[in-house]
Amino acid sequence: MTKNNPQQGKRAAVVINPMKSPDEHFQATITELCINAGWDEPLWLETTQEDPGRGQAAEALEAGVDVVIAGGGDGTIRAVAEVLAGQDTPMGLLPLGTGNLLARNLGIDIEDPAKAVLGVLEGAESKIDVIVAVLDHGAKELTFLVAAGLGYDAAIMSNTMEGLKDRVGWLAYVESGIRNLRGEPVTAHISMDGKSETHHKVRGVMVGNCGKVMGGLEIFQGAVPTDGILDLMTFSPQQKFGWLGVVAGVLGRGKSRAVRSLAGKRAEITLSSPQEFQIDGDPVGLVSHLLVSVDPLALTIKMSASSEKKSESEVSGRQSHTSPQLLLSSEN
């Protein structure tokens, strides 16, 4: 006997940060959505301060669910993705944070949680790259999906005031950015796919899997999380108005010597002194050595067809990279 509803008997797990839940009836709302879509009642797993999602994602896999929906900010989504990378079970996104960086890059609805969940339940599967970061010669290994940063941008994340973030959202990062403009530059030795360069008076190094960051700003022009390529950018503001040169370099697509970009599959970064480090917007601490590499198409995402088509259109516009390339000119 065949099923009239292809979704019948399927079950989702929802790994959710309870602090990000829109209201006290949210679980009931999501449960009703699942049932109305022909799915079973979802497995509801709340994160804790001690476990931001890894243990819950592992529990969901053990339960044999058909999809794991990560509900919360970018930290929750990253924690769930660390467990699901390399697995057959797909991940769905329920963006409830301030940045919602991966959701923005994939074209997933960030305004309507119910619509985002419905997109998972009724959507199709696709795969994206995962970036693996090894800190300080193996002291710690982490996974990220959107972008990581050493120096200035990490200092912004570390010093953003939570109360202000709750009131004005991502604009709180702008305020932190202004406060952290002053800082000591460092020397960065960078090797991309075996080709080494030295960058002097660097205030920041960013590594990206996706193009867009806070506020929808496209830092890495044309970068998409399905090309098997990681993008790297250094910021070296020159003299008094140096940050204007950085802005021009980012927004003007290579018209400033204050910004330098590379692309490849594996990068090693050594700094002359430890700097703040962040991954997908979460502060990690001080780091002086970083090894990053691409795990191509390691994570399966389940999302609406409209989101998938948007991602595919962006991929078609991406230039293929087979070796490290200088994308923006600069002086060492």
UniProtKB/TrEMBL annotation:
Pfam name, any one: DAGK_cat
GO cellular component: cytosol
Cross-referenced SMART domains: DAGKc
Protein name per Swiss-Prot or TrEMBL: Diacylglycerol kinase
GO molecular function: kinase activity; methylglyoxal synthase activity
Entry keyword set: Kinase, Transferase
Organism of origin: Arthrobacter psychrochitiniphilus
Gene Ontology terms: biological process: methylglyoxal biosynthetic process
Signal peptide: none
